[in-house]
């Protein structure tokens, strides 16, 4: 059932764009606010606004019909082929996430998830957090492979969430990128937010969330470089966005400007990016622990081909 709201524009929003004002008032994304305006679900002083970019006046009367909240997404417990558990105790599970598996269910994702796979294999996970994200303290993109930790106990959940937030977790990735970064070792410090196109990509955007990526060249080839990457922040698609922004996209990452010819030659159908190592203080004992994941077959094969060509 839809939800109808009538209220005046607060004086503090005087002069704001209508879509921005709706976003602030109702916690909507700018895109969703614009959709409501286009659909005729927003009236300003009883009239249909001419555009989402109309400026609002303090005290103007808004009538807004909000859509019903989406049904909660829940993990379907079913084993995920190829997902292995690297380590398990009473507090944590460490998995080696394969290609094509999301961390947890989201609206629009119908594929397998780490959470569903663990539940399907009979593992217990923490129930803290939103139902669709229980136990999940950090994420990897669906097509980024590698090591990922999941909380089993409620204590582990809260301590690991804090550790990721306070950036005391060591996250190391290997990426095969096009060309040769100059300098060979460096830091990319550039804010990231959703791409203005609204097509699901992210981009370096003025006023975005602060994002810091450190990289170091491990091996240079004729057409590409193997980098070890450390993250200070954990933005969605951060490594992919930052490497693309400095014109060295991950090999195979067509969404972020990689060369399709090179990708096809190396048999890459996704970005060459792997979470190779994860280190943190164990949430129960406080002892430092480190877990590693070897390259999966598609990445190892592409790397060999690049080596052979060089």
Automatic annotation (TrEMBL):
Entry keyword Transferase: no
Transmembrane segment boundaries: none
Keyword Cell membrane: no
Swiss-Prot/TrEMBL GO biological process terms: enzyme-directed rRNA pseudouridine synthesis
Catalytic reactions of this protein: a uridine in RNA = a pseudouridine in RNA
Family matches, as SUPFAM superfamilies: Alpha-L RNA-binding motif, Pseudouridine synthase
SMART domains: S4 (SM00363)
InterPro entries for the chain: PsdUridine_synth_cat_dom_sf, PsdUridine_synth_RluA-like_CS, PsdUridine_synth_RluC/D, PsdUridine_synth_RsuA/RluA, RluA_PseudoU_synthase, S4_RNA-bd, S4_RNA-bd_sf
Documented EC number(s): 5.4.99.-
UniProtKB keywords: Isomerase, RNA-binding
Gene3D superfamilies linked: Pseudouridine synthase, RNA-binding S4 domain
Enzyme class: isomerase
Active-site residues per Swiss-Prot or TrEMBL entry: 141
Annotated ranges, domain RNA-binding S4: 16-75
One MF annotation (Gene Ontology) recorded for this entry: RNA binding
CDD domains in the cross-refs: PseudoU_synth_RluA_like, S4
Domain of life: Bacteria
Protein family: Belongs to the pseudouridine synthase RluA family.
Cross-referenced PANTHER family: MITOCHONDRIAL RNA PSEUDOURIDINE SYNTHASE (PTHR21600), RIBOSOMAL LARGE SUBUNIT PSEUDOURIDINE SYNTHASE D (PTHR21600:SF44)
Function text: Responsible for synthesis of pseudouridine from uracil.
Protein name: Pseudouridine synthase
Native species: Bailinhaonella thermotolerans
